[in-house]
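Field reference: "sequence" (input) and "structure" (output). Example, LysR family transcriptional regulator:
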Amino acid sequence: MQLDHVLLRTFVAAIDAMSFSRAAAMIHKSPATVSTQIARLEAQIGKPLFLRDTRNLSLTRAGEELEAYARRILRLHDEAVAAFRQPDMAGRIRIGAPEDYISVLLPPVLRRFGLLFPRVEIEMTCAQSTALLPQIASGELDLAIVTRSAGVGGELIRREKMVWISSRERIALERRPLPVALFEPGSQARAVVLAALGRGNVAFRPAYESVSQLALLTLVEAGLAVAAITRMSAPSSVIQLGAADGLPEVAPLELALVRGRGADTPVCDALVEALRESAATLPDAGAPAP
């Protein structure tokens, strides 16, 4: 038996996405090609790897056993390629992003980047966009992923839908005026939420505000307020709301990648490319501006 690493990469992508169509976007193939490659791998193994129905995708026992081997094989393959392709790539990158972007966008990027470029050091700063932009301007950061607002440049890498969230018990929804948890003054996320509430003529009170999304989520989960956050960062512990709940649509946020002084290096270029790919292949990615 010869296990093709191309088929294994498709297999791992399907696991990570739990969808053949989303896996296809991640590895830049068509859904039909992903299905064909999974079928070929199942033929090699001699057992089905996935349980499929119209909505869900899950691993069989054989799929679970193969996953660990597949990830080890691909990790060693990528390390070998990196060792011969760019053995001298080294340096340091200082990157900043808000906590919700860090938790969703960066883990797969940094995991793969660390394997390919083990001699590159990554310094991470977690802060709101309003705090990161001055650090880019002063040269304290090389790269930053920020929410774009008026006057902010950078490269648009994603448009992200905003969703209203509430506790599962929907306690805050029953209160009038509606208690809303908001991000800090000056943030674009706060601005689009307030604009939406104004357009919708919603009677509300700004019950809480914070620079931390984790703090907003804690308040929402406790039933003390509703909030609007990016869809990609909405946890399963809350429910998403919409027009049927009397809440207006909120304009999407634009995520921009901003470079600082001296960030025009091969090391930064490699990380920028990885960030572009990660942003483009997340589920429900918005189309970048023309």
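The CA atoms of residues 206 and 216 lie 12 Å apart.
The longest strand covers residues 91-97.
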